[in-house]
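In full, the data:

***
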Amino acid sequence: MNKHILTIATATILTLTACGNGTYNKSGLTPLPDTIDLKDEKLVEAVTNYVQEQGAPPNSVYDFVRVDLNNDGNRDGIVLFKLPHSYWCGWGGCGMLVLKAGQESFATLSTISNVRGPIYVSDETNQGWRDIIIRISGERVKDKNVILKHNGTGYPETPLLAPTLEIPLSVLNTKEFFR
C-alpha cells in the first residue's frame, strides 16, 4: 500500500515539475501581474482636466465605460459627452473621448466627433487596439455602421471617413455600450 502511494506521489511531482516553465520562485507563491487597474476616480479626474483644458463648461455631463482596448490588462476609458448639447454635440452626434490607462493616470488617446450610442467594442484589433464600431446617420450621411480602427497613434477624429462595416454586427464578437 505504501509503495503504491509513493509511486503516485512521485508521478504527481514529476508531472507538475514537467509543466513548469523552468524558473524557480523562492517564495513559493505565484507572482501577481505587473498591471494595476486604475480606479474610476482617476478616469473622472482625467475627464475633468480635459474639460478644463478645452475651456468647456465645467458642468459638462458624460457617461463612461471601462474596457481593456489594447489587451494590456488595464481597463481604458471611453467617454461619451452628453450635455451641454450645444457645446458637445452637433447634427451627427456628440463628442467621444478615448483614454488610455497608464500606471498612475489616464492619458487622452483620441477625441472623436459625431458619435451616438450605442457603440460596440469588437474583439477584432488593429495596431494592437480593439476596433470600435459606431452607427452614423444624418441628413447628408447614409445610415450605416463604421469601424474606428486604431492607426498606431489613435482612433480617427471623425467617423465620417471610417470604413463601413460590411458584415452584420451579429457576426462579430462585440460588447455594446451607451445604448
In short: Residues 64 and 79 are 4 Å apart (CA to CA). The longest strand covers residues 106-115. The chain has one domain: 40-177. The radius of gyration is 23 Å.
